[in-house]
Amino acid sequence: MGWLRAGSSVAKLAIRRTLSQGGSNATRSRVVPSPSHIFIPPSLSLRHKLHRVYLEELQRAWEADPDSVDVSWDNFFRNFVGQAATSPGISGQTIQESMRLLLLVRAYQVNGHMKAKLDPLGLEERQIPDDLDLALYGFTGADLDREFFLGVWRMSGFLSENQPVQTLRSILTRLEQAYCGSIGFEYMHVADWEKCNWFRDKIETPTPMQYNRQRREVILDRLIWSTQFENFLATKWTTAKRFGLEGGETLIPGMKEMFDRAADLGVESIVIGMPHRGRLNVLGNVVRKPLSQIFSEFSGGIKPVDEVGLYTGTGDVKYHLGTSYDRPTRGGKRIHLSLVANPSHLDAVDPVVVGKTRAKQYYSNDVDRTKNMAILIHGDGSFAGQGVVYETLHLSALPNYTTGGTIHIVVNNQVAFTTDPRAGRSSQYCTDVAKALNAPIFHVNGDDVEAVVHACELAAEWRQTFHSDVVVDLVCYRRFGHNEIDEPSFTQPKMYKIIRNHPSALQIYQNKLLESGQVTEEDISHISQKVGSILNEEFLASKDYVPKRRDWLSAYWTGFKSPEQLSRVRNTGLSGQDVERGTLSHRHSVIHDQETGEQYCPLDHVIINQNEEMFTVSNSSLSEFGVLGFELGYSMENPNSLVMWEAQFGDFSNGAQVIFDQFLSSGESKWLRQIGLVVLLPHGFDGQGPEHSSARLERFLQTSDDHPFVIPVMDPTLRKQIQECNWQVVNVTTPANYFHVLRRQGTRFKRLIKDQNMHSDLEEGIRRLVLCSGKVYYELDDERKKNNASDVAICRVEQLCPFPYDLIQRELKRYPNAEIVWCQEEPMNMGAFSYIAPRLATSMTSLGRGTFEDIKYVGRAPSASTATGFYSVHVKEQTELVQKAIQPEPIKCNAVI
């Protein structure tokens, strides 16, 4: 068993029973736990007693039969006996004392972080665990200068300088330095002991973390840049919202050192996602967005322009924007950094960044996932409170979603928005959710810049070594309010009374370096003056700053048409929930041999000698928000690919509504970022109830930006309707059209399919033109055949958005005497009606065919629910609406059944 839970008399008997059973080397590790697996009960007195009982029984069992205990205990006893015989200085030490000392070491490894000095403000009240108390292990102050033998426990990484005999005082000093300083390490929950031993070797080094003068000057320079940047903005724009980094300025040198170390270890590209807090500082000092451009945005400068001088997009607040840059590192290499734009929905950007990173790895053939890395920066409140954080963490080890580890940095200002920790989470730390994925966590005092740098470097080393997630919890504070014009003392008076008199991290570090003698006042003044001079130069340059090109496009998107450019339609002639299987058996992307279980994917063999990586189908985790964000990020990297995500049912997409609203529908307009994602949402009423009937078509159409009252240029040689529209919404009815719309090629995608009866260009005898979209067409056609209603024409609007004005008008001209009907399965307040009606009316008015009042509606009545859950009611509703659409009687204006 992995843990020995000895907390009762029954458990004690179980200990004795297992110890007496003996066993071979192959089985005994399951009988008695090794020194690093001992469970320590909660009660101090109970723990003390149980330790003695356990260790005494363990020793007696070994003396009776060495094979009855774990091999590590066998080695311990053998080495201890041998060492005691040759080292008179420890002859008075009992085996039980040595073993209890090992338990003390382990207690520091497990819970030392609870004693670490993490809070810069000293406000956090944490109870020191009992297992860090010497008394628990039977030691007193009189034992501090006694020598003890520890050298046999090599697996701990402790005493790596080969000094197996040390005083208890020196052992405690080392433990306090390693685990209770400015960094609190949580790693003993990691199940892989190779990884734990790696940490021990890194943490329990004999020489404390130190940097030479050269490194300290670099760290100082970076901290000055971080601090003066915020001060400069505060001076120049005193009332502007910037969500500054004051109180967490050490993030900047920490990130820079992390990136330098990552580059040394083979990373060539880093994709970054972060919220608004400190974003401008990261943009300017880490990713190196031109400072003059940042300052110009503060001054309300020139809007983004494209190559032909036309304003493009709506823009967004400056602390939502992103950029990219090839940055030189301290080690002489270059690394590509890209900061992804994101909305105020905080961690909504997380899966987007991970997906974009995965795509970079794919297109650069980064099979080992060591060249492209993701960095996510979080707030303490959002890391604990936003479900998308866990959804993203949950993707970290899935075969088709892993990126080889993400480094998470939590800028923990201890109040989230304005909430105290006790009101913002139920756990001890805001980072506890990461333990579910066995991610190690480094809690670090944000006032200790060298500790921050060390933690960030260690995180980079972990990621490159073990290719899994790691978390740096930067415990800092927020010097001002949520934004600079907010008064924080209203809600945290005690905290902000301390903050007002608390020195900055830069002041603390400058004093430390001055006291060490490694840096002089002149050195500090020189760096400060240099930074100040550059900031002022960039400020002056910002007054005349003009964007030179559309640098928001990644290299792969170069050449794609902008909204102002023409792109003619050419003639020529892929993930989701359970997509391998096909949830409703409507298709299977992967076929399974019924005898062997072997998998076969037909689409891997479309052409001869097809590259295995050309097609990938992936069953995703049961996540909408996280997985859709991942695929969106993946699609941003390369337009020459087909990236698809499918929901089990259309309405399941509402769990990812933030991605649709903030990224897919508006990302290009706000951030000038192009996206190439196809979202498949099964849609159609077939009596399966509200959740399984609707893809909420109306939501997508409502957020479409094509104008309902203006007919754009529809000449094929001049048309740019697709480029001008923010996205395309289609509801296809044939396999061929489905194929063609995915490629936007083929014989040609049909935006509208005319009546199948091959009517001539002028059909004056048609009394009714029924326009519809989706599967209802087939029921309408069946009804028409049943009633021999040859005077009814049915046209399918396959592309709803952008609205096919030219083809609609063609059909209106074809049937000059027909009344116009829009038929849909959905309730009147849902589906496409509210989108179609004004655009159809615009088409009619321009031809003199009537107005909005002349459009007849056939469909379900307005409803709060998307569909009925009673099959009999569904059948009745469906039958009536189909009959209503085809029947010969006149339909009243906007009539509903």
Fold blueprint:
Blueprint: H1 9-21, H2 25-28, H3 44-64, H4 71-86, H5 95-111, E1 147-149, E2 165-167, H6 168-179, E3 183-186, H7 193-203, H8 213-236, H9 251-264, E4 269-273, H10 279-286, H11 291-298, E5 323-328, E6 334-339, H12 350-363, E7 372-379, H13 380-385, H14 387-394, E8 406-412, H15 421-424, E9 441-445, H16 449-466, E10 470-475, H17 493-500, H18 505-516, H19 521-542, E11 591-592, E12 599-600, H20 625-637, E13 643-646, H21 657-664, H22 667-671, E14 677-680, H23 697-702, H24 721-724, E15 729-730, H25 735-743, E16 752-753, E17 768-772, H26 776-786, E18 792-797, E19 799-801, H27 805-814, E20 819-827, H28 833-846, E21 855-860, H29 871-886
Parallel strand pairs: 4-6, 4-7, 7-8, 8-10, 9-10, 13-14, 17-18, 17-20, 20-21
Antiparallel strand pairs: 1-2, 3-9, 5-6, 11-12, 15-19, 16-18
Major sheet characteristics: 8 strands, mixed
Question: Quick check: average pLDDT?
Answer: 83
Compute the number of helices. Answer: 29
Q: Tally of extended strands?
A: 21
Radius of gyration from CA coordinates: 34 Å
Low confidence ranges: 1-44, 307-311, 550-555, 559-573
- CATH level-four homologous superfamily name of the largest domain: Thiamin diphosphate (ThDP)-binding fold, Pyr/PP domains
Tally of structural domains = 4
**Share of residues in strands:** 5-15%
The percent of residues in helical segments reads: 25-40%
The CATH architecture of the largest domain is 3-Layer(aba) Sandwich
The 3D shape can be described as elongated
The termini sit apart by 68 Å
